[in-house]
Amino acid sequence: MTAAGTTSTRASISTRVWIDIALFVGYVLLSAPQTTGIPFHEYFTVVFIPIFISHIVLDWSWIARVFRRSDRQRSAEVRFNRVFDIVLFIGMVVVIYSGFLVSESILPDFGIDPEVTTFWSTIHDAFGNLLILLVGVHVAVHWPWIKRNIKRIRPDRRS
Amino acid sequence: MTTWITRNAKPILLVLCAAVLVVGIFEAIDAFGDSPRVASDSASEEPELSGAATLAGLIKVAIFLLLGAAIARPLRSRFRPGSPDS
Hints:
The complex is a heterodimer.
Chain A: H1 13-30, H2 33-36, H3 38-58, H4 60-68, H5 76-101, H6 106-109, H7 118-141, H8 143-153
Helix pairs in contact in A: 1-3, 5-7
Chain B: H1 2-7, H2 9-33, H3 52-78
């Protein structure tokens, strides 16, 4: 997530940082249904999905660069990010999709009674927990970018 | 908003197609397994948490996130400092 490599998305650093913050806060809230309650957990997912897609699209030039880079140029970090981000994406998609299949609130509210199977229920719980761990790794790996750009968008208090 | 979506139509479509592919793979796995249905009343059996117990959810998330960050520490030390890839 380099600051210089994002001109093709035409997104400002400020937009990207705020989307990342919204995504992280939203993710934390979604990961704690015991705290927020099942209706919030399910309805907020609908808000979370566009934020998640925006996070990927706003960093698209970085993603394209990482995936296009030839084998010789691949640093350990690029190699790691390639695999890890795919795993993270798969995990997020599976957790969101399985969440709808085991819905107790949003789908019944719309008159749909999903047939909850043990497969999707187990997948939702297991991937949900694993994903929190993976998000922790993702944030920590990109922490230098986050720290650098939060400093950049913070208003200068001296002026 | 519409302009942004139009401008980024290609990555948005690729993300959606990748998501459909992932869902398709997992649906195929499920189709092979023929997993049993969860008893309809078991979903509502979860006890209602109140007070401090509701904090347990956030504490669990915090612990898992910190654990993930701890796992990333040895990884980050292997990456070049100041690398534009981060």
